[in-house]
Amino acid sequence: MLKILDRYILKKFLNTFFFSITLILMIFIVFDIKEKIQTYTTKDIPLKEIIFDYYLMFIPYYGNLFSPLFTFIAVIFFTSKMAHQTEFVAILSSGTSFKRIMRPYIIGAVFIAFSSLLLNHFILPKAVKIKIGFEDKWINDGYSSEEQNIHRKIGPNRLLYMESYDNRINTGFKISIEDISNNKQTYFLSADNMKWDSLTKEWLLTNVYERKIIVQDRLDTLKNQKPIFKQINTFYPNKKIKIPFIPNDMWRYDSKKEVMPYFELKEYIIREKLKGSNQIEFFEVEQYRRSSFPFATIILTIIAVSVSSRKVRGGVGLQIALGLFLSCIYIMLMYIFTTIATTGHGSALLLVWTPNIIFTFVALYFYRTAQK
Fold first, then answer.
1. Where are the domains positioned within the chain?
2. What is the pTM of this model?
3. How far apart are CA 159 and CA 275, in angstroms?
């Protein structure tokens, strides 16, 4: 049950957080409109799409992205004001322990962290998909894949090759598919192009040449060896095939990993591991980052309270400066370790969580040295 102290601190915490994050998002939106105003007017983009497909998705994306930082700043700001007004001295003098004072802060931090966790795994991927669709349609003039000589492993023994791919019309050009078993080709297919049929969820191939190699378990009397390999060659003007490869697999890696909700991303990682994909680290890092990033809110809140609860010379500005310095270090560590994780050098789970592990010890240090 929340007591008067809990409600007092929690109200200050959440009010300051939502006010600061709203203010910064409004500033971001103003600058973004200023940057894109010419595009909006010259291309006659419908106002409804600008508001609902872009800025309505823009707000939760960037609000969630900056939530740990602004939680930190909000806590430092109102806590240091309480300290300079000697409110903390009065609370501690009444016999209330520092540990007890931390309770409303932890409740607020857990609320923000849990909200961020739900956003990251289930809500934001859908919002980002709409936002990226708007950007590719109106701002990027339609995203076009520039990959050439594309190779994909689409099964344990099956390889897909495309000379090029146009994601705007979901069509691949100069196609070949082959099955390899025991270092020997057992199947080969080539086609001029393949186009995605969104109704049947199949690929329509044109000018298809197919070669099946059948192993016959009998002796070749001329060469005195077995088995004998028999080839069956077939030509089709058009042929539909269903393979474990869809247009979404040709999205940009950054877009593809951001638009998949938790369960879809988890299934995709399992499927790509079976294919032997060499880009699996990007998706594992995304999966772990979505959980580790909200946890930073709790750690940074503990540090912020510990740093700002003491009345010091220099006032609020000095404490905010220290807070921003620590936040910059955290962001730098997160960037360094996530980059290392994407290279495959080490456990992605451990590397993504390393900044939180380091800052947990930093939080414990500041907590122990805080004003008691």
1. 4-140+280-369, 148-246
2. 0.81
3. 10
